Amino acid sequence: MRIVVIVRQTPDTEAKIKVAPSGDTIDTEGIKWIVNPYDEFAIEEAIRIKEKLGKGEVILITMGPARCIEALRTGLAMGADNAIHIKDESFAFTDPYALAKVIAQEIKNLGEINLVLTGKKMIDEETGQVGIHVAEELGIPHVAIVTKVELSSDLTKVTCQKEIEGGQMVVEVPLPALITCERGLNEPRYASLPGIMKAKKKPVKEVTIDNINLEALGLTKEALGPAGARFRVTKLEVPQIQRRLRILKGKQQDMVKGDEVAEAVRELVRLLREEAKVI
Amino acid sequence: MSNEIWVVADLTIGGDVRKVTFEALSEARRKLVGKLGGQLCGVLIGSGVSALASELGKYGAEKVYVVENELLKDYTPEAYTVALSELIKKHNPYIVLAGNTSVSQDFLPRVAARAEAGLAVDCIDLDLTDDKRLVVKRYKYSAKSIATVEFLDYKPMMATIRPNVFKPEEDAKNPEVVSESVEIKPEVIWTKIVEVRRKESPRPELTEADRIVSGGRGLGSGENFKLIFELADAIGAAAGASRAAVDSGFVPYEMQVGQTGKVVSPTLYIAIGISGSIQHFAGMGSSKVIVAINKDPDAPIFQKCDYGIVGDLFEIVPVLTEEFKKLLAQQ
């Protein structure tokens, strides 16, 4: 079983986002980078499948600047076997269209594979379209937003439970297939100390911009950077939503007590009705 | 290349047109149709869906393409991709819009790939540049920033819109209905549907709800979520939860609102016993009015809400539920 996991490095979920002086991207100064949380579920699932079968290969692939090696090392420390880093500083800006095209091409270069896993969305770009686009380029089925994965005993099919609005669905697709992983699928492990030591020696193949057959993909060097392949970010803002901040408190202490409870509730309902006009 | 702006209808499992489709039609009419000098069209994909064309007309669709096929009865990404891709190939629309629903998120990336089109998802603003390229706004970095994204000159330009952001507004038209037959070979359908489990919930879905009541760790137990459900039912709201409440096992993950849960955008969001982490705000920060009830006056949510009561939720919530019931009974 050869399993490919598409990984992205994203700012930590707690990171404070500041706009860079250029006005169209974030200021990366002081940002702590992590493995995209949903991709962690994908890495964990790939390792579990390999462990269960007792054999196989888990290959991580990422496209991004030099810093992304840290995300690959984390996945390798968890138990992946090797990794591919499609590396260029301009790839911090690659749009989803070009990301999918280039990543799919590198996966094709691997020859026969059985399964591709990735997160249901990249929390920085806030989209889950890249994985599905990769499946389309590879000509294989996909199942998105999956909370349970079960391979058939002859390893020709996979049955997945996926979340949909107003319910759940169980679907079966033939392998090879691409699956995007949702929280609840598993509990990702922490890398062990020996795992971290071993990860340092695991092979990471670097693919540079000159190794990509851009013409075959209908792309240019510029299209992989801020100029975009299909669209580009022209402005980034940190939203300043003005909230009313009308906080009702008790007279003696912060908490409303006794009669103050009913009073505060009546006042809240009045404000919602007369000021905010939402009830 | 035509100057048509398409809105692909999103349907519920029960086969009704989702509100987000009307929102997309309305915003396209307000912001794009005039500037482009284009025609607003609806697209219906499914089996036995042609009767829904008049509903799209109610919100301004002048033309409705209907692709009906027995193989489109149940949603599969493969069949839907063929249906929409073939339609795009034949008619070359300028812009293709849809709601950012689980179905559209599932098959539009494939359609965009086939059309070699850009696809911007979960947009909260739509416009055209002077040279008639689509320009959208969308959240990035866990709702902590908003990006303005300009399409390059490739058509179609595709985008999905966040539910509950744009106002649906009727503009009754009697649409021309264009029936299209698309050949779908059964062997291209890889996905076999084994089972569909619909949740029989009396409450609206979180992502579409106009009002949401969410509970956090402060509820203390799953049983105490009864307070949340009663309040929600009193005002016809959906019920949500913070990650802390889900991780504590009070309620299932499908109720989680936040960075690693559902992204919602209701008119009214009532957060009860929720401290208001950055991750929670990543899922509900774009709500129009936020109300917080928490006993900790220093909870971060009190820095980012419209109205709040500092106090014991177990004392406040039942009184609030009764007060809402009284008020709504009068109306």
Helix content of chain A: 25-40%
N- to C-terminal separation of chain B? Answer: 52 Å
Please name the CATH architecture of the largest domain in chain B: 3-Layer(aba) Sandwich
What is the helix content of chain B? 25-40%
Number of beta-strand segments of chain B: 15
**CATH architecture label name of the largest domain in chain A:** 3-Layer(aba) Sandwich
Specify the overall morphology of chain B. Answer: elongated
In order across it, which strands form the biggest sheet of chain B? 7-6-5-8-4-1-2-3-9
Beta strand count of chain A: 13
Q: Provide the residue-averaged pLDDT of chain B.
A: 95
Number of helical segments with 4 or more residues of chain B: 8
Order of helices and strands of chain A: EEEHEHEHEHEEEEHEHEEH
Please characterize this protein's 3D structure.
Chain A has 279 residues and is of the alpha/beta class. Helices cover 28% and strands 27% of the residues of chain A. Chain A has seven helices and 13 strands. In chain A, the strands form two sheets. Chain A has a nine-stranded mixed beta sheet, sandwiched between helices. In chain A, strands 2-3 form a two-stranded antiparallel sheet. In chain A, helix 2 crosses helix 5 and helix 3 crosses helix 4. The longest helix of chain A is centred in the N-terminal third of the chain and has 17 residues. The N and C termini of chain A lie far apart (56 Å). The relative contact order of chain A is 0.16. Chain B contains eight helices and 15 strands. With 331 residues, chain B is α/β, with parallel strands linked by helices. In chain B, strand 6 and strand 7 form a beta hairpin. The mean pLDDT of chain B is 95. Chain B folds into two domains: 185 residues, HUPs (Rossmann fold), CATH 3.40.50; 125 residues, Rossmann fold (3-Layer(aba) Sandwich), CATH 3.40.50. At the A-B interface, helix 3, helix 4, strand 7, strand 8 and strand 9 of A face helix 3, helix 4, strand 5, strand 6 and strand 7 of B. Strand 12 of chain A pairs antiparallel with strand 7 of chain B, so a sheet runs across the interface.
